[in-house]
Amino acid sequence: MKRFEERKQELLNATQRLKEVINKEENDIVIDCTLHRFEFTFELAWKTLKDYMEYNGIIEVTGSPREVIKEAFRNNIIQDGENWINMMLARNSLSHLYDEEKSREIYIEIKEKYIKLIEQLNEKLN
After folding, report:
1. Domain containing 56 — which CATH number?
2. Domain total for the chain?
């Protein structure tokens, strides 16, 4: 329980920090910062989901974000499984991305879709 509670708070904090930068006037530094904070926030989100499901006896132990997302969707913890998978793929591509156009597309998706999914998760966990 303690691990889940700590991670849940870390996710709330990371979400707030991501929202702070999303609301700033757009420039290259803001975009880079948004992408970086998104990567960190997504990592916390799927790991918090995993901890939540373990704590509630829904799963034993699973290794991948994809498995956690699918199981969370199956158990109605998250509502939009397809966009969660898309968010995971966007996060994964940022680790290997050197294409400025693609990174800008992900930036827009973060602002328009992904932050809402993360906020919904925070609401569900509280």
Report:
1. 1.20.120.330
2. 1
DSSP the chain: -HHHHHHHHHHHHHHHHHHHHHTSPP-HHHHHHHHHHHHHHHHHHHHHHHHHHHHTTS-S----HHHHHHHHHHTTSSS-HHHHHHHHHHHHHHTT---HHHHHHHHHHIIIIIHHHHHHHHHHH-
Task: Give me the mean pLDDT over the 29-46 stretch.
Answer: 96
- pTM given for the model: 0.91
- Structural domain range at position 83: 2-125
- Cβ atoms of 53 and 59 closer than 8 Å: yes
| 43-73 per-position pLDDT tens digit | 999 999 999 999 888 877 677 999 999 999 9
pLDDT of residue 61: 66
